Amino acid sequence: MPFVVQTYNDWIRSLSSVFAIDGLRIDTVRHVERSFWPGFKSAAGIYSLGEVLDGRVNYTCSYQEQLDGLLNYPLYYPMMEAFGNTTANMTSLDFSMTAIQNSCQDPTLLGTFSENHDNPRFLSHTNDMHLNMNVIAFTLLAGGIPIIYQGQEQGFSGGNDPANREALWTSSFSTQTALYQFIASINQVRNHEAYGFPEYLTSSTSVISSDDHNIALRKGQIVSVFSNMGWNATTYNLTLKNHGYQNNQAVMEILTCRNLTVDERGDLHVSMQEGLPQVLYPNTALNSSGICSM
User: Fold this and answer.
1) Dist CA 273 CA 130 (whole Å)
2) Is residue 94's pLDDT more than 90?
3) Listed residue (222, 218, 221, 232) closest to 272, CA to CA
């Protein structure tokens, strides 16, 4: 084994052991010979997430032959397109989710993100906070391993590097911002589902409905609905099928604590208000969760 390769392997083996590291985020993976990564990952002995900054599904997914997971750039670009403005459509997002499911060895190990230090923040493209809330909710609920970039919870809006690397202490590390509370609410139901049904974390995500301006997903017992209509949208109704709930079953929209009921034909009617996302969960599974005072 070449000296440099052996040195890196020895270093990461020691580092992960001494500091009990849970996982690695590895930068610029595609700029290193592929043959290097399996030995490095084996030496680390922990989950390894690689950055392959490329939106092509087959190319990026092929790196799962060398590493456990990857930053999900094939989903990032369609997300930016779908939620970036109110004239966009969800077609490429739906298509990309299907392509990733079919091409990647294990999509549940991909890192799902909507902001990072290499790309302009979402709010540098638009000041529509409801579009921003949709893209954050999608990041948390679309599957894979959700990644929230520091400052996203504060509504930072820096553009290209280095403007997108704002100092977090300028926010006083507030836990009271609307976005911080919004993220916490979604994470609470996600954690509740994962603790009660551990298979949630490894289950696939299904697109159960999509059109130009809306996309609905199901993962485990969580059904989530997203819109790119923005904060000026009027109220409109969506009818969901294939949601997995039973006829006449009561479900909770956990962001507003509104009760909905699946009708006797199995249709779930969701009122989309002001272009905000909706997160639905069975009432009976909320008992003792603390969510919506349940």
Assistant:
1) 10
2) yes
3) 232
Q: Which of 10, 22, 33, 51 is catalytic?
A: 51
For residue 107, give the DSSP letter.
G
Q: For the chain, what's the residue count?
A: 294
- Residue 1 banded pLDDT, cuts 50, 70, 90: confident
Q: Write down the catalytic residue from 10, 27, 267, 274.
A: 27
Instruction: Indicate if 54 belongs to the active site.
Output: no
C-beta pairs of 68-72 under 8 Å, 24+ apart in sequence: 68/41, 68/106, 68/109, 69/106, 69/109, 69/110, 69/111, 69/144, 69/145, 70/29, 70/104, 70/110, 70/111, 71/110, 71/111, 71/113, 71/116, 71/147, 72/100, 72/110, 72/111, 72/112, 72/113, 72/144
What is each CA distance from 117 to 64, 124, 164, in whole angstroms?
23, 13, 6
When mean pLDDT is compared across 54-58, 89-93, 140-144, 260-264, the lowest value belongs to 89-93
Query: Is residue 153 annotated as part of the catalytic site, yes or no?
Result: no
- Say how many Å lie between the first and final Cα of the chain, rounded: 58
Backbone angles phi, psi at 212, to 5 degrees: -60, -35
pTM: 0.96
